[in-house]
Amino acid sequence: RKFDMSLSELAEVNKLDTDKPLKLGAKIKGPATTQKAYSVQTGDTLGEIAKRFNVSVKALAAENNLRATATLKKGQKIALPSGFKDKGPLRTTTSVATSRPATPPANTYARVDSSAATPSSPIPYTASGAATRPTAPVAAQPITPPANTRPIIETAAAPTEAEIIASGKGKFAWPLRGEIISSFGVKGTGQRNDGLNIRAPQGTPVVSAADGEIAYAGNQVPTFGNLVLVKHADGWVTAYAHLSSTNVKMRQQVKQGEQLGTVGATGGVNEPQLHFEMRYAPTVKDKAKPVDPGLVLPR
Prior knowledge:
Number of helices: 6
Strand content: 15-25%
Largest sheet: 10 strands, antiparallel
CATH topology of the domain at 161-295: Glucose Permease (Domain IIA)
């Protein structure tokens, strides 16, 4: 069912006897495809796709204007370089024993200060579900093999702060230039700034830090006044608050440098300024967490 093939067709492709059980570690080959673009499945990496289509990661990344370490999303179309040869999807079988308790991988994304109150955020979060394992042995369970020989648990680990910052370098520009009157980080007991506050004259144009789509434009978050959220590629979101006016609407596509609104003092601040945030989530199931813009934006 997973390969959309009948049992006899799958057995014929892999030269198997349908009356005999699969051996532990056996590799099962599915049908080959002649399509020139591949639709990303959950857990796919550029390395795995390159291996399947017998091309180099470098060539595959260049064909799609991506970094070799880029995070892929389910359903994303990956163009295949000329000369590719589809080996068909590979799956391997394994068994899970009950004697080994499941231990979820540690989240290395960020440290949480338990003494600080949970900050308000303009971005709605969806908590990711905890990973579970079967409570009984499972035989011949198909899984996607990792791109290399490192343990599977490592491939599931969240990216480090350094990796996240590196992935954003060169992709974003300042929404405006001005004096930073409040920097990123903890500001006192129970208080922190998840972005930067930049002083600028009333009415100064505020532009999008990168290409993206307007995820929100409105004033329903009182402490932020007029607020615009822009969703970018590869899990990034930027926020622009305290605007005096906005020039965009929901689902509108914007380019880097395109005006979103103008500097104001809405949302309870005492002088004209822009509150600017950058947030990142490795996958759509993960909670978007704040990243210091000063470490990502050009100096």
